[in-house]
Amino acid sequence: MVSSRFLLTSRRITQFSFILLVVLMPVLNIFRYDTATHELIVFGKIWSLGLKAGFYADPSLSVSLHVALHFLLNAILPWIIILSIFPLAGFIGGRFFCGWFCPEGALFEWADYLTLKVAGRRSLYKRRPSDPETSGDNRIAFIVLAALSAVVIPLLAGVALTGYFVAPKTVWTQIAAWRFTFGVKAGIIGVAVYILIGSIFVRHVFCKFVCAPGLMQMLLGWISPLSLRIKMDTARIAECTDCRNCEKACFMNVLPRKNKRDISCVGCGACVAACHKELGEGKGLFRYQMGEAREKHRERNAADNTGLYDLRHNTPEP
User: Fold this and answer.
1) CA distance 135 to 167
2) pLDDT band at 49 (very low <50, low <70, confident <90, very high)
3) What is the mean pLDDT of the segment spanning 88-94?
């Protein structure tokens, strides 16, 4: 059984590592599109259809089939594979990617943390019953940190993401000389404004209702009988101390003790760690579980002697 500290530390390392990967991909020419040369670069090589110059001059059937095959293999099929990543991830892992990898999710969490330290609540607009208590110590220091974050993080994100369309070397050369082309200036400012507005005013509303990859994972995770979920051990419900730390730990405002699939749950494991901390390491009521079949089988075995299984599963949910 992993400890709560190990769970939380692992998630932070995973988030940071994925952010680092996103930043380094254009720098290392792993993946980027160069608008100057109109070339897609993948793993240091120019990705093309593999067609020789002048192919369009030959109208024969064999050449047409050759072109169609190259277009299928080098254009359509790769995009189908790329676009299938998130639905497949959702079918297997639910919204695990959102909670453990998504850079925007990590940014929104950081914004929640700073708002909590500065204003005593996660949301910029109002305090929720699930917001954790905060002492208010070092408030001035957190205000300064929040102001720095609001300037530095959006600008760095703008520089990093502009590198996907303009060679990173060109971007940094222009920054060093403080002389910008329109494309570089527009890219940095556009991304910076988007990041700033999202992290201050929108945050997890974007995750719930706007983010296309997140919504695909939510939908596939919802219908999948196999997807990874966080479940509560209902057989030990009497051990719950009603501390509500599981609710306070959830930045998506999920109520974990309802023990139902919630489209907002990103599988971050914060409730798992909070419950282990309250009841003792290895004694928490929440756990990760693949699918529902195993859970129903375990519930049936636990309730066979009391007749509770038939009652529970034949009673409609409110």
Assistant:
1) 46
2) low
3) 92
Q: Which residues contact 145 (CB under 8 A, 6 or more apart)?
A: 114
Yes or no: say if 24 and 30 are a contact pair by the CB < 8 Å rule: yes
Q: Are 272 and 7 in contact (CB under 8 A)?
A: yes
Tell me the Ramachandran region of residue 53: left when phi exceeds 0, alpha when psi lies from -120 to 50, beta otherwise. beta
Identify the burial level of 110 via C-beta atoms within 10 angstroms of its C-beta, where 0-12 means exposed, 13-18 middle and 19 or more buried: middle
- DSSP character at residue 314: T
Q: How many CA atoms lie within 13 A of 208 on its CB side?
A: 13
Instruction: For residue 315, give the amino acid letter.
Output: T
Backbone angles phi, psi at 159, to 5 degrees: -65, -45
Token reading at 314: 């034949």
Taking the alpha carbons of 10, 123, 94, 42 in that order, is the dihedral positive or negative? negative
β-strands 31-34, 286-290 pairing = unpaired
Residue with tokens 């070339």: 39
Asked if 7 and 269 count as a contact pair (C-beta separation under 8 A), the reply is yes
pLDDT in tens, 288-305: 998 765 555 555 555 554
Q: What is the pTM of this model?
A: 0.83
Task: Provide CB contacts within 8 A for 245, sequence distance 6+.
Answer: 274, 275, 277, 278
Q: Pick the closest to residue 66 from 56, 76, 77 (CA basis).
A: 56
**Residue 228 near residue 93, CB atoms below 8 Å:** yes
pLDDT-based confidence at residue 232 (cuts at 50, 70, 90): very high
**CB of 89 within 8 A of CB of 97?**
yes
Dihedral angle computed from the Cα positions of residues 65, 68, 74 and 75, in that order, rounded to the nearest 10 degrees: 180
Distance CA 66, CA 72 (A): 10
The SS3 call for residue 224 is: coil
Residues 124/201, Cβ–Cβ less than 8 Å: yes
